[in-house]
Amino acid sequence: MSLSEELRNNGVVKNLGEAPQEELATGERSTRNRVARSILDHGPSTVADLAGRLGLTQAAVRRHLDSLVAENVVEARAQRVYGARTRGRPAKVFALTDCGRDAFDQSYDTLAVDALKWIEENAGGEAAVAAFARDRIEAQAVAYRAAVEAAAPEERTEALAKALSADGYAATARSAPVGEQLCQHHCPVAHAAEKYPQLCEAETEVFSRLLGTHVQRLATIAHGDGVCTTFIPRGAPQGVTSPPPGDPPGDSTTQTRTTPSASASTAGRNPA
User: Is 6 in contact with 14 (CB distance < 8 Å)?
Assistant: First the structure.
């Protein structure tokens, strides 16, 4: 299991990777978390530093560091020396990688909500938030559009699911009685979307254009559902994609346009 899929709890890294069975014991995992947390709190640290702070032997610290290095949570580097340099090699220190730092609780959700609130209050109200949401998803949709257009018509929902998964949405496509369902099992912006459903609505509109048909959002994680679920009806001509807003009319590279629309009553909201 990758770090991006790990749960966060009270700022402590949990379940770092697939370790041997004995490493998965609660005590071992807890100690490994303490090692990572100590580096976060105190900065790059030597084995001796960590052993002293945590009351562990240096051999035990090295064993946990080996696991953390293997999982790209920490990395070894030469210790910076300030002032006159002594003889011998500088001590090796261990520092958190970007991946390791991201495994701790961050305030990105709060920052995103604060930014959207500022846009709403100072830059045009709900219409400005909706415009931001559309521009944001259009930028992401460049890769999605390429994946959908490269797939056979009957495989385009699956292609979209794979492209979404590459962006962290853990998406799958499955058959439904009268169509298909696109399921997103994770939403990186769920907290912001809970307060600003324009994010979900813009995403649903893009799905509609990418697949060339009306789609209906049945459920969203932001609304409290377990999965974001979008229904794609069977028999509609998939794959006739609309270019993003702003493309010049009559461009020779532009495909025949269709303008299917997402369900206005359900996009970003659970209709129940």
Answer: yes
Q: What is the CATH number for 70?
A: 1.10.10.10
Our count of domains for the chain comes to 2
Domain span including residue 212: 109-233
Long-range contacts of 13-17 (CB under 8 A, 24+ apart): 13/37, 13/73, 13/100, 13/103, 13/104, 16/67, 16/68, 16/71, 16/73, 16/103, 17/67, 17/70, 17/71
Region 66-72 average pLDDT: 92
Q: Read off the pLDDT of residues 83-118 as tens digits, 9 standing for 90 and up.
A: 555 565 667 899 988 888 877 766 778 899 999 999
- Indicate if the pLDDT at residue 262 is higher than 80: no
Q: Tell me, yes or no, whether 35 and 54 share the same domain.
A: yes
**At 56, which amino acid appears?**
L
Pair 124, 18 in one domain: no
Residues 32 and 10 placed together within one structural domain of the fold:
yes
Enumerate the β-bridge partners of residue 9.
12
Residue 233 has pLDDT above 60, yes or no: yes
H/E element, 159: helix 156-166
Q: What's residue 69's pLDDT?
A: 94
The pLDDT of residue 272: 32
Reduced to 3 states (helix: H, G, I; strand: E, B; else coil), residue 173 is strand
pTM: 0.60
Q: Which amino acid is at 36?
A: A
